[in-house]
Amino acid sequence: MLQGNYVSLSKHKYGSHVVEKCISTKNGLEYAVSELLRSSELIELAKDPSGNYVIQKALEITKTSDLKFVE
Protein backbone atom coordinates (compact mmCIF):
# COMPACT_ATOMS: atom_id res chain seq x y z
CA MET A 1 0.00 0.00 0.00
CA LEU A 2 2.91 2.37 0.59
CA GLN A 3 4.61 1.72 -2.73
CA GLY A 4 4.96 4.96 -4.65
CA ASN A 5 4.68 7.02 -1.46
CA TYR A 6 7.99 6.38 0.32
CA VAL A 7 9.60 9.62 -0.90
CA SER A 8 6.68 11.87 0.05
CA LEU A 9 6.27 10.13 3.41
CA SER A 10 9.98 10.56 4.12
CA LYS A 11 9.60 14.33 4.00
CA HIS A 12 7.20 14.40 6.94
CA LYS A 13 8.09 13.94 10.58
CA TYR A 14 5.67 11.09 11.31
CA GLY A 15 5.76 9.66 7.79
CA SER A 16 9.51 9.26 8.08
CA HIS A 17 8.94 7.03 11.13
CA VAL A 18 6.68 4.81 9.02
CA VAL A 19 9.33 4.58 6.28
CA GLU A 20 11.97 3.79 8.91
CA LYS A 21 9.86 0.88 10.18
CA CYS A 22 9.43 -0.37 6.61
CA ILE A 23 13.18 -0.17 6.03
CA SER A 24 13.68 -2.30 9.14
CA THR A 25 11.89 -5.24 7.47
CA LYS A 26 13.40 -7.27 4.65
CA ASN A 27 10.55 -6.77 2.13
CA GLY A 28 10.05 -3.14 3.09
CA LEU A 29 13.76 -2.49 2.76
CA GLU A 30 13.79 -3.71 -0.82
CA TYR A 31 10.75 -1.67 -1.87
CA ALA A 32 11.62 1.52 0.00
CA VAL A 33 15.29 1.69 -0.97
CA SER A 34 14.56 0.86 -4.60
CA GLU A 35 12.02 3.68 -4.72
CA LEU A 36 14.37 6.12 -2.98
CA LEU A 37 17.19 5.30 -5.39
CA ARG A 38 14.96 5.83 -8.44
CA SER A 39 13.58 9.12 -7.16
CA SER A 40 14.46 12.34 -8.92
CA GLU A 41 13.95 14.04 -5.53
CA LEU A 42 16.84 12.26 -3.79
CA ILE A 43 18.89 15.46 -3.41
CA GLU A 44 15.95 17.38 -1.94
CA LEU A 45 15.24 14.43 0.33
CA ALA A 46 18.81 14.50 1.60
CA LYS A 47 18.44 18.22 2.42
CA ASP A 48 15.17 17.69 4.30
CA PRO A 49 15.63 16.99 8.06
CA SER A 50 13.20 14.05 8.11
CA GLY A 51 14.25 12.77 4.70
CA ASN A 52 17.91 12.92 5.65
CA TYR A 53 17.20 10.70 8.63
CA VAL A 54 15.47 8.15 6.38
CA ILE A 55 18.43 8.10 3.98
CA GLN A 56 20.89 7.66 6.86
CA LYS A 57 18.82 4.79 8.25
CA ALA A 58 18.61 3.14 4.82
CA LEU A 59 22.38 3.40 4.40
CA GLU A 60 22.97 1.97 7.86
CA ILE A 61 20.72 -1.03 7.25
CA THR A 62 21.84 -1.74 3.68
CA LYS A 63 25.47 -1.90 4.82
CA THR A 64 24.67 -5.08 6.75
CA SER A 65 22.04 -6.41 4.34
CA ASP A 66 22.69 -9.10 1.77
CA LEU A 67 20.23 -7.57 -0.70
CA LYS A 68 21.51 -6.46 -4.09
CA PHE A 69 19.83 -3.51 -5.80
CA VAL A 70 20.02 -3.78 -9.58
CA GLU A 71 18.12 -1.71 -12.10
UniProtKB/TrEMBL annotation:
Gene3D superfamilies documented for this protein: Leucine-rich Repeat Variant
GO biological process, one term: regulation of translation
Any one GO CC term of the record: cytoplasm
Protein origin, superkingdom: Eukaryota
Residue ranges of domain PUM-HD in the record: 1-71
Spans of repeat Pumilio: 35-71
PANTHER family assigned to the protein according to its UniProt record, in alphabetical order: PUMILIO HOMOLOG 16-RELATED (PTHR12537:SF137), RNA BINDING PROTEIN PUMILIO-RELATED (PTHR12537)
InterPro entries: ARM-like (IPR011989), ARM-type_fold (IPR016024), PUM-HD (IPR033133), Pumilio_RNA-bd_rpt (IPR001313)
Keywords for this protein: Repeat, Translation regulation
GO molecular function, one term: mRNA binding
Pfam families: PUF
Name of the protein this chain belongs to: Pumilio RNA-binding repeat
